[in-house]
Amino acid sequence: MSILAWIIASCIAGGTLSIVCATFFALGNRTQNYLSGMVSYAIGALLGAVFLNILPEAIHLAPNVAVLSGTVLFGILLFFILEKLVLWRHCHHEHCEAHVTHEPGHGFDNGRSGMLIIIGDTFHNFVDGIIIAAAFLTDVNLGIVAALAIIAHEIPQEVGDFAILLYSGYSKLRAFQLNLISSFSSVAGGILGYFTLQTMQSWIPTLLALAAASMIYIAVADLIPGLHKRAHLRDTLQQVVLIVLGVGTVWLMSVFMAE
């Protein structure tokens, strides 16, 4: 089996397996009843992935940390503009549905956060493909280990992404389709990484910074404000616990990957 075949097979298997595992968890019959909790968990998973994995890796690879930080700031502004464009597309007057704030699990946000999470996830999966290619080009066994570690890391994030897509108003089937399509961007990253690895490596910090920016923006601008609609102490404690659980899950996966 050639190295390129190993890379493609690992990217396809990894993306499919992580999506299937996440969907199996998220597609329960009572999904709508605990969607608010899933969104809280998603916030923790997103922020954990950004600050425990993506940004540290980007800083490690970046030749200039100041430029990298500027890229994150640019990315946050970029996703703010993208969200505005989505709002303008759906609404041209002051009192339309796009201006109404909904609670998680009790309404939708016209696809805004769903669109942004797919864009950010595509960047992230693309970089994962490059990382898998680099590992296989070093050693096949290392490539297999790297692919397994990435799958383990992706499952909690994909559960969070699925919750965000449902929160954003997508059907369960459409959420599955979008996550699956986004996951296959790792195949493109793996193939390009195989043929032009030296060139692509210089782009990894920028791609990671943009992925981090999208996740920060979604968590802080789109999801956290919805949680404030449930201000009772019991709801707040539940939200905090689930956010910490999301961060903790990503941290455990990071420890596993480090080993």
Automatic annotation (TrEMBL):
Keywords: Membrane, Transmembrane, Transmembrane helix. It is found in: Membrane. GO terms for cellular component: membrane. Pfam families: Zip. It comes from the Bacteria. The chain crosses the membrane at residues 6-27, 34-55, 61-82, 178-197, 203-224, 236-258. GO terms for molecular function: metal ion transmembrane transporter activity. InterPro entries: ZIP. It is a multi-pass membrane protein. PANTHER family: ZINC TRANSPORTER SLC39A7 HISTIDINE-RICH MEMBRANE PROTEIN KE4 (PTHR16950), ZINC TRANSPORTER ZIP13 (PTHR16950:SF16). This is Zinc transporter, ZIP family. It comes from Candidatus Nitrotoga fabula.
